[in-house]
Design a protein that fits this description.
Blueprint lengths: L11 H18 L13 H18 L3 H10 L3 H16 L8 H12 L4 H11 L7 H15 L5 H10 L3 H8 L9
Helix pairs in contact: 6-7
């Protein structure tokens, strides 16, 4: 009896889930080191830390409680001191313990994201100009600001705003060309 590994020998509906489970199990065993966070009060660093942690949570398929435990382990310095203070304050006030990442994240956001942060991002994206930047650099910065603020707008409006802020000599040439949507 010969063994054949052609795709015709397997029912795709059965093979794909097994392969995906195997891949997920391999990723579960992958050693990933989470960044430590020390509250340097830079919102971008904080958001980068949260984003990196959430990728690990997703990769490792952590539930909310396990994600919480990893997050508090990765706090150091002032961030760790802040968490300990929060924990003791809640105990003194007879409030329930924080046991989940989603609840902790709300408290961390309040502490490490200034209330004006999102407004500052909106101001940056609405006032961004090409100025001394190369076109590629300007587009990259434009897209990054848009993603950070979570701005969703119709592609035609996005292109119009992008073109409006290009240097006049470049904008006049671009306006004559058909547009292609930027990121999805």
């Amino acid at each position: 009896m010969e063994y054949s590994s052609s795709h015709e020998d397997f029912d795709d509906d059965e093979v794909r889930p097994r392969r995906l489970r195997h891949l997920r199990d391999d990723l579960q065993d992958l050693k990933v080191k989470a960044l430590k966070f020390d509250c340097n009060l830079n919102p971008k660093n904080y958001l980068d830390w949260v984003q990196a942690l959430e990728r690990i949570f997703e990769l490792k398929d952590y539930n909310d409680e396990k994600a919480f435990k990893l997050a508090i382990l990765k706090m150091k310095g002032d961030a760790s001191l802040w968490y300990e203070h929060l924990k003791k304050s809640r105990a003194r006030e007879a409030k329930s313990k924080i046991k989940t990442w989603s609840k902790l994240k709300k408290h961390i956001d309040k502490r490490f994201l200034p209330p004006s942060y999102k407004q500052e991002l909106y101001l940056k994206i609405t006032s961004l100009n090409q100025e001394n930047l190369k076109v590629e650099e300007y587009i990259k910065e434009f897209e990054q600001h848009q993603m950070r603020v979570g701005l969703v707008e119709e592609p035609k409006l996005k292109i119009a705003r992008l073109i409006k802020r290009l240097s006049p000599s470049i904008a006049s040439k671009v306006e004559l060309q058909p547009y292609y949507p930027l990121m999805g």
